[in-house]
């Protein structure tokens, strides 16, 4: 055989082997791809992929009947305009801090009205605190979620006394009987237990959001849908400028409310918190369990249920934070950064 002929044969064979190897590799990778496609194909035609992802989602910009809802008109947000320049309006974990001047109620209300949330406002009126209930509810009628679907839930040891108040209210009020607690501490700690138990029994069926407030609160200005969020707490008005070392967290490791010295964001006040039923259930259950464990170990946390509440919020960050404007006390005066006093807390005229 001549030399050129042998070279030609070798060239042709080489090309063929190269071609076969490249095809083999391609089939291998195609097989990988084919597996993926095959797993998607397996869902047709019975299931349309993605439909389950949309279940329960309440969107409203395209109503089913085609008519457009009435829109709120407002000026365009200006990226260069700072709503408040003297206070923090966003936490380092990106939760908004709600201050007067940072939101437009009309935009928020529009969203709220379309979604029709049900809100449960819970309040304890045990023993002499029943005397504060009338004023509390009258102020809630006037200022709390005016345009919303609100139920009031009153925890009391004396339903007859509550009925005797002859409250004139426009919303449903349910009286929930709780034990006669032996003292103030038991009543305050018991609130977590009652909230937890009633969420299991009742709240989960009746409302979307739960709000817990003290009875010694009188609302002075509107408290609206701007407060709604998955888990919302209020910065304590007495400590909002304090350094971490001065916050009254529980620092003893023996308590379940223990927070190490180098941890803690804000100090929150346990007299006002809210969230979705599910998040409030988890919060109150965790605090209740912490309180029970402390009790079994013969230790009382520094600020009762508020210590457990603060511990929870260090490790389960609130998704929205309300400024001290939402739980102000007149006794704290009128500092410049408090632009509006939405409530007066702590006036106990029994
Ligand atoms: C200075 C201080 O220590 N302040 C604490 C105290 O605030 P306060 O002095 O605001 O507590 P408080 O006397 O208002 O009690 C809390 C709430 O529990 C209810 N209640 C209490 C006792 C009772 O016999 N009957 C009854 O119904 C009632 O709704 C009352 O508003 O307690 C709060 C409980 O969230 C926080 O721990 C506060 O940091
Ligand atoms: Mn109080």
Features:
manganese; binds manganese (II) ion; metal-binding; signal-anchor; alpha/beta; Spore Coat Polysaccharide Biosynthesis Protein SpsA, Chain A; 15% strand; two-stranded antiparallel ribbon; 8-stranded mixed sheet; elongated; binds uridine-diphosphate-N-acetylgalactosamine; 350 residues
Provide a quick synopsis of the model.
With 350 residues, the protein is an alpha/beta fold.
Number of helices: 8
Provide the structure class: alpha/beta
Oligomer: single chain
The CATH superfamily is identified as Spore Coat Polysaccharide Biosynthesis Protein SpsA, Chain A
Output the radius of gyration: 30 Å
CATH topology: Spore Coat Polysaccharide Biosynthesis Protein SpsA, Chain A
- What share of the residues does DSSP label as strand, in percent? 5-15%
């Amino acid at each position: 055989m001549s030399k050129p002929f042998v070279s030609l044969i070798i060239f042709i064979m080489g090309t063929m082997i190269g071609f076969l190897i490249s095809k083999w590799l391609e089939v291998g990778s195609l097989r990988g791809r084919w597996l993926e496609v095959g797993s998607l194909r397996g869902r047709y035609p019975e299931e349309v992929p993605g439909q389950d992802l949309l279940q329960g989602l309440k969107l409203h910009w395209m109503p089913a009947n085609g008519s457009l809802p009435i829109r709120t008109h407002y000026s365009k947000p200006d990226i260069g305009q700072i709503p408040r320049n003297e206070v923090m309006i966003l936490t380092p974990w990106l939760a908004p801090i709600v201050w007067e001047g940072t939101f437009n109620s009309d935009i928020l209300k529009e969203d709220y009205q379309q979604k029709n949330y049900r809100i449960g406002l819970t309040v304890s009126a045990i023993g002499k605190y029943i005397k504060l209930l009338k004023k509390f509810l009258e102020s809630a009628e006037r200022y709390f979620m005016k345009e919303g679907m609100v139920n009031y839930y009153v925890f009391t040891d004396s339903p007859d006394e509550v009925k005797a108040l002859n409250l004139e209210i426009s919303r449903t009020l349910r009286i929930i009987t709780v034990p006669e607690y032996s003292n103030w501490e038991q009543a305050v700690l018991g609130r977590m237990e009652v909230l937890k138990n009633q969420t299991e029994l009742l709240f989960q069926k009746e409302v979307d959001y739960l709000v817990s407030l003290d009875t010694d609160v009188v609302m002075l200005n509107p408290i609206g849908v701007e407060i709604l969020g998955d888990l919302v707490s209020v910065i304590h008005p007495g400590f909002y400028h304090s350094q971490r070392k001065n916050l009254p967290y529980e620092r003893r490791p023996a308590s379940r409310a223990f927070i190490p010295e180098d941890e803690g964001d804000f100090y929150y006040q346990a007299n006002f918190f809210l969230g979705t039923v599910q998040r409030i259930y988890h919060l109150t259950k965790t605090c209740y369990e912490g309180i029970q464990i402390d009790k079994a170990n013969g230790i009382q946390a520094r600020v009762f249920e508020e210590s457990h509440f603060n511990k929870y919020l260090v490790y389960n960050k609130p998704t929205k934070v309300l400024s001290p404007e939402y739980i102000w006390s007149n006794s704290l005066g009128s500092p410049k950064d408090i632009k509006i006093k939405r409530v007066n807390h702590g006036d106990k005229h029994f």
